Amino acid sequence: MELGERGRIGLVLPAMNTVAEPEIYSILPEGVTSHTARMYAPVDISDEENFVRMCDVGCDNGEQAAKELATAKVDVYAFAFTAGSFYKGAGWDEEIARRIEKAGGAPCIVTATAAAQAVKQMGMKRIGVGTPYAVANPRLKG
Is 106:10 a contact under the CB 8 Å cutoff? Predict the structure, then answer.
């Protein structure tokens, strides 16, 4: 089977993420390839203001990343910036997906959306969340 014959995933990542790319490579089925574009986002998350700035800048750069990946003719986008997908509350993940889809011309799945769908599908009633963003924890309790 040829590389990318079954599909191409456009992985949109914050530049500081060193985990998602190797994880994706380890689980890709035969014939599916992953292509990555990174979004710049400042890494200072020392307080709420800087956390929001990191998310704002990263999300704003997502559309450019999608445009770059469009040249690889990806079939779907995965917006893998968890903090950036929930920090503005309910519905923000859908807005991010719309922006990426418009910029890149292919469907987009967002981490917050995928997590919510998994929780619902599995019938979970209580969940725990671990995050490196201590300043964001109050946002998760909503």
Answer: yes
What fold is seen in the domain 7-140? Rossmann fold (3.40.50)
Torsion of CA 24, 26, 30, 32, to 10 degrees: 20
- pLDDT (tens digit per residue) in 75-103: 999 999 988 998 898 899 999 999 999 99
pLDDT of residue 133: 72
Residue 28 to residues 71, 87, 98, Cα–Cα distance (Å): 21, 29, 25
Question: For the chain, which residues make up each domain, given as ranges?
Answer: 7-140
Residue 1 contacts residue 33 (beta carbons within 8 Å): no
